[in-house]
Design a protein that fits this description.
alpha+beta; 2 domains; four-stranded mixed beta sheet; two-stranded antiparallel sheet; CBS-domain; elongated; 233 residues
């Protein structure tokens, strides 16, 4: 059993080296894992991975005694390698942190503007998806009302969302941007999208998540920057 665990440890390290190379590029396979630790997502593992590297070197370079390894890796060491490997081979995606559509406040073209605004105020929301047959047709936001009022629109108790149709398309929002991404987008990639979006005049505020990232696919959920804080590792 100890020999089997050791072989599993060595095999996991080899897989970890290969996976690490895909992230950091070719640095020489014996250095790829440690080079990975310069990535903030894996820096907390540096000391433990360095210890595992020394164990791996000893096991790889020393001959067995009567067919047995002289030392055996601990369960904790093996579990550590498997944990890091999982993060490399199956990184978390936006589907893991998004707010599903069923839990969202959404609007339709028949919704009353004042009712939607009250619900948004009560939940502390500034923008919500506008849906028709589960597809996103626009976004209703505080900016929507602001633009409409500036243009002379009178919003009363009976004003419906459809009455503000000119301000609802994603491209009509002056200061905010919304983007479709697929549910398989990694958290790291989503964080990078938000980071780049923050540098633009129109700030990226909401990721609209569909199965394939297509705008004409049913909405599965949404993600905001706060969903990614502390989750990309």
């Amino acid at each position: 059993m100890s020999n089997e665990k050791t072989e599993l440890f060595l095999d996991t390290w080899r897989r970890l080296e290969t996976a690490a190379e895909r992230v950091v590029g070719s640095t020489g396979r014996t250095n790829a894992v440690m080079a990975l630790c310069r990535d903030p997502r894996f820096s907390a593992y540096r000391d433990e991975l360095d210890y595992c590297r020394e164990v791996r070197n000893l096991l790889s370079h020393q001959a067995k005694v009567d067919g047995e390894y002289a030392v055996y890796p601990s369960d904790a060491a093996l579990q550590l390698l498997q944990e890091v490997l999982r993060k490399l081979e199956a990184p978390p995606t936006v589907a893991d942190v998004m707010t599903p559509t069923a839990q969202l406040i959404t609007a339709s073209e028949d919704s009353r503007v004042t009712d939607i605004m009250r619900r948004m105020r009560d939940k502390g929301l500034t923008h919500i998806p506008l849906l028709k047959k589960e597809r996103v047709t626009g976004v209703f936001s505080v900016e929507t009302v602001f633009q409409a009022v500036l243009d002379g629109c009178c919003i009363g108790p009976d004003t419906a969302v459809r009455d503000l149709a000119d301000y609802l398309p994603l491209e009509k929002h002056m200061n905010h941007e919304y983007r479709f991404i697929s549910k398989g987008t990694t958290l790291q990639a989503a964080e990078n999208i938000f980071r780049k979006g923050a540098a633009r005049t129109r700030k990226l505020r909401l990721l609209l998540i569909t199965r394939d990232g297509r705008p004409d696919s049913p909405l599965l959920g949404v993600a905001v920057p706060l969903d990614l804080v502390g989750r990309t590792d």
